[in-house]
Amino acid sequence: MTQTTGSLFSHLRCVECGKIHEENQLQTVCRNENCKSILSAQYDFVRNTLTKEELKNRPATLWRYKEFLPVSDEKNIVSLGEGFTPILPLHHLNEHTRGIRVLLKDESNEPTGSFKARGLSVAVSKAKELGVKTFVIPTAGNAGGALAAYVARAGLKAHVFMPKLTPSAFKTEARLFGANVTEIDGNISDCGKLANALAAENGWLDVSTLKEPFRLEGKKTMGYEIAEQLSWTLPDVILYPTGGGTGIIGIWKAFDELEKLGWTGSKRPRMVAVQSESCNGIYTAFHQNEERSAYKDNGFTVANGLRVPKPYADKVILQVLRDSNGDSVSVRDEDLLIALREIAAHEGILVAPEGAALWHAYKVLSRTGRIEDGETALLLNTGSGYKYLDNITG
User: Fold this and answer.
1) Is residue 389 within 8 Å of 167, Cβ to Cβ?
2) In sequence order, what are the residues at sequence separation of 6 or more whose Cβ sits closer than 8 angstroms to the Cβ of residue 14?
3) What angle do CA 28, 114, 87 make, to 5 degrees?
4) What is the CA radius of gyration of the chain?
5) Are strands 134-138 and 157-163 parallel, antiparallel or unpaired?
6) Phi/psi at 379 (nearest 5 deg)?
7) What single-letter DSSP state applies at residue 167?
8) Could you give the 3-state DSSP secondary structure of residue 206?
9) What residues have CB less than 8 Å from 353, skipping those under 6 apart?
């Protein structure tokens, strides 16, 4: 018996050429041969009857926003309690925060220890609804573990491809969840090529970053939560660690949807993409006013999730930065590790290296006047530092 979620999901639209794709057929990227860009889920907000006050009585998971997620039948939701992570003020770093309200949204509390749980919960749920049995993913670590966990929860199968340099905790995690893990002597792009080829050969669903439309929908719930947790007033600045870029695109999409719902106004935060010097193509393209980023890989970084040589949605990421009057900062591993230890010692939070990069970037921006007194800055820590102990202490 079908128990509807009340989803207002209506169709998928290509972000570049605008081509409409059917909502209840398995889709990857735009079918227009001259485009192949990412697909964005669209909703019929005119039919919405949910009020933001009603949210208070809903479970504290991302599925509290189920009307604005793509799953139609409750029985297809694959959940481990993901979402509604805390927003914590930084109390003891006054030397750097004086005059500025600095908040940290801590995704280390997710079921698999990172924000990847959001995207994979929604992607696996919708794929299950569409009849998918086997998944494949290239990953720097966290996404592979999250896919393995949600596929295990759904009783399905997963193949995970990781670089050999990935810390052992990520490999062990995915294997414990029952995934078939293959280690590749290369970076995530090399993993992606093999995953894509095997997906085509075997009929598996490739859930690579932004090469299917529904991980984005899970990630956008961070934007909904930021608004709700801050009483529907958005921060002035959001700093986000940017590898593949799903989160920064998703959060921006959420703010657009919230405005359409009438739950927030038109004022948006300035979005800041923070990258590692190892792979800072977005940073370079932004500051050189380029439309797309170049392929860039200078090798290992302790922030595995930031080693993405060329994001598939580079053009969209750069557009978000410019539309928001945002910025981009590139961080060296040495500075990132200092920042990680500073937050741990002063705030009691062991952030992921990707999250630590944000603290260093914040200090750069506040020191140079790009974040001003009286503003609110939100740092989005994407995962737990415990998984990275091989990198942090090695």
Assistant:
1) yes
2) 21, 30, 32, 35, 37, 38, 39, 40
3) 115
4) 19
5) parallel
6) -100, 130
7) -
8) strand
9) 301, 302, 303, 304, 306, 336, 337, 340, 385, 388, 391, 392
What tokens appear for 27 in the block? 């889709």
pLDDT in tens, 94-130: 889 989 999 999 999 999 999 999 999 999 999 999 9
Q: What is the pLDDT of residue 95?
A: 86
Cα distance between residue 296 and residue 304, in whole Å: 15
Determine the residue type at 313. A
CA max distance for the chain: 59
**Structure tokens that stand for 248 in this block:** 């920064």
Identity of residue 11: H
Give the pLDDT band of residue 310 (cuts 50, 70, 90). very high
Q: Are strands 9-14 and 39-43 parallel, antiparallel or unpaired?
A: antiparallel
Side by side, the strands of the sheet bearing 327-331 are: 87-89, 101-106, 376-381, 237-241, 270-276, 327-331
Give SS3 for 72.
coil
**Closest Cα partner for 241 from 128, 101, 336, 315?**
336
CA–CA separation, 361 and 273 (whole Å): 9
| pTM for this entry | 0.96
